[in-house]
Amino acid sequence: MQNKVYSEVLAVLGALGEKFTNSIPAKLIDLFNSQKNAYIPIIDVSKPLDKQGLDNNTITIIALLKLNYWCDDIDEKIKLLQILEKNERELNDKIRESDSIKNVLTLIRKNK
């Protein structure tokens, strides 16, 4: 399944073009190529990434590539880090809420 992610990352990079791909270390591109599978995703450049049906891990890798290689200045990096931290907090909140609901349901079942 993870190999699908690398195929998606490479497809996104292909859609972004050489300017973006050339700013990533060749060893990293080689890693993506060595780990990809035969899956060839179609990227519609008229749609945002979150509407492409990509794996969440693909989006995460692209976000990290942006943070490490494509941010133009420190302000852009700070904004992206704030977004990533906000997303992390929201995800953790959802996990805690889900766990709380599971705990309540478990207690209800035990008390029957």
Could you characterize the architecture of this molecule?
Helix 1 (2-16) packs across helix 4. With 112 residues, this protein is mainly α. The protein folds into 2 domains: 1-70, no CATH class; 72-112. It contains 5 helices and no strands. The longest helix has 37 residues, at 74-110.
Give, in order, the helices and strands: HHHHH
Q: Treating each run of at least 4 consecutive H or I residues as one helix, how many helices?
A: 5
Q: How many distinct domains? A: 2
Judging from the principal axes of the Cα atoms, what is the shape? Answer: elongated
* Quaternary organization: single chain
Structural class, from helix and strand content? mainly alpha
Radius of gyration: 19 Å
Low-confidence stretches: none
Could you list some keywords that capture this structure?
5 helices; 2 domains; elongated; mainly alpha; 112 residues
Show the helix and strand layout.
Layout: H1 2-16, H2 18-21, H3 26-35, H4 56-70, H5 74-110
Helix pairs in contact: 1-3, 1-4
Task: Characterize this entry briefly.
The protein is mainly α and 112 residues long.
